[in-house]
């Protein structure tokens, strides 16, 4: 792959991964996921895990790094969503 191709991959990876930071921060700050769709985050997190596996299989670092970071952020949000009903309100 060319350096330009890798650069485009890394920029795309940064943008799509960074998009989850404000949502993860909001969930961390408010401890609330009430307005988030469980089905969407479940399907999304599964998809990101599959993209991570795909990136590993083809050896693409932009895909691996982006999806590893995204699965951590989306997994945190999903975990908070799954346990929201079990937590006491703040």
Question: How would you describe what is shown here?
Answer:
The structure is a single chain. By secondary structure, this protein is mainly α. The protein has one domain (3-86): Up-down Bundle (Monooxygenase). It contains 4 helices and no strands. Helix 1 (3-18) packs parallel to helix 4 (61-83), helix 2 (21-30) packs parallel to helix 4 and helix 3 packs antiparallel against helix 4. The longest helix is centred in the last third of the chain and has 23 residues, at 61-83. The chain is elongated, with a radius of gyration of 15 Å.
Write the layout of secondary structure elements.
Layout: H1 3-18, H2 21-30, H3 38-58, H4 61-83
Helix pairs in contact: 1-4, 2-4, 3-4
List keywords for this structure.
90 residues; 4 helices; elongated
Q: What does the main sheet amount to?
A: none
Helix fraction?
A: over 70%
Radius of gyration: 15 Å
Q: Please give the CATH class.
A: Mainly Alpha
How much of the sequence is in beta strands?
A: under 5%
User: Which series of helices and strands comes N to C?
Assistant: HHHH
In whole angstroms, the N-to-C terminal distance is: 50 Å
SS content category: mainly alpha
Shape: elongated
Please provide the count of β strands.
0
Assign the CATH architecture.
Answer: Up-down Bundle
What oligomeric state is this?
single chain
Q: Ranges with pLDDT <50 over ≥5 residues?
A: none
Annotated CATH topology: Monooxygenase
* Average pLDDT, all residues: 87
Counting structural domains, the number is 1
Q: How many DSSP H or I helices?
A: 4
């Amino acid at each position: 792959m060319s350096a330009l191709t890798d650069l485009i991959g890394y920029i795309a990876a940064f943008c799509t991964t960074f998009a989850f930071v404000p949502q993860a921060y909001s969930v961390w700050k408010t401890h609330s996921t009430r307005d988030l769709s469980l089905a969407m985050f479940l399907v999304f997190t599964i998809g990101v895990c599959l993209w991570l596996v795909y990136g590993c299989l083809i050896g693409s670092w932009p895909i691996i790094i982006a999806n590893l970071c995204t699965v951590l952020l989306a997994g945190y949000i999903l975990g908070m969503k799954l346990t929201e009903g079990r937590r006491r309100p703040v």
